[in-house]
Amino acid sequence: MSDLETRPAEQRLACGAAGGPEELLLTARRVPLGKTTEVSRLLPDRQVRMVGAWCFLDHYGPEDLGDSPGMRVWAHPHTGLQTVSWLLEGEIEHRDSLGSLARVRPGELHVMTAGAGIVHSELSPPDRPPTMHGLQLWVALPDAARHVAPHFDTVTDLPRLERPGLGGQVLLGEVDGVRSPAPTYSPLCAADLVLEPGADVEIALDPAFEHGVVVVVGDATAAGTAGVVDQLVYLGTDRTRLRLRSTGGGRVMLLGGEPFGEEVVMWWNFIGRSHEEVVGHRDAWERRDDRFPPVVARGERVMEAPPLPTVPLKARPSRRVAP
């Protein structure tokens, strides 16, 4: 998925050591995604820029497509990151410059590693189901992996995590002893968890990770903080257990990872290590350099990069600023 903001901020995401357990409730902001879709953006946030290597999180839907064409995210580039696509309802067609053609469906994980550069599109197919609901996440690649050759992976046999009152799938990494086979380049985890009405359950966490719990359906309380749809409970590090509760039932995405120890600059669909590097990525896309091959053909419909800021923005604080 693309960041379609017409004036995207350049964000310097420099993540130092985390400060132990916290409970901070964040609320998403609404962002247009093209002319037909609006999303709730939870990361990056003014107070929490990243959760581990997780640097971008959009929640969209549930949307009744009706007469709407659905998602229309035309061909656009990425560098220095992985996109993680997770659908709760509906179908989306993914195409990329590697020749990949995939139907993104609920319960199947799709991870696109941009590395040095890739181009892809995401469109609702004509024979789509009537409802679209999902999450799009980005993972910042560490310096040792950010120039890898791009690749696209689909994982359909994700392991299940079942506890009394809770059930779900582990998407990446390991959660409470259940490990996903999906490819990762830094220590992180993600799980889609469904809480039954009245659920009160604990799961084990890696204390070296910082964690966040995103509510996507219903209600959920993570540790001692209650959240509703489109809120993220940031939990910090140094937790060995997490208590999850729900009154009426809910669905959450648990994210975690070791605090990302590298400074990165994220602007539009690019992640680099300096303002100048990101400017180079944009120039290469504008020239349709060979590092950004077409998805189908050079004459295809594409998304043009927004104008750059007139001056480099000042560095942002690492992960947190005071409210």
Automatic annotation (TrEMBL):
Belongs to the pirin family. The lineage of its organism: Bacteria, Bacillati, Actinomycetota, Actinomycetes, Propionibacteriales. Residues 191-288 form the Pirin C-terminal domain. SUPFAM superfamilies: RmlC-like cupins. InterPro entries: Pirin (IPR012093), Pirin_C_dom (IPR008778), Pirin_N_dom (IPR003829), RmlC-like_jellyroll (IPR014710), RmlC_Cupin_sf (IPR011051). Residues 38-139 form the Pirin N-terminal domain. It holds the Pfam family Pirin_C. This is Redox-sensitive bicupin YhaK (Pirin superfamily).
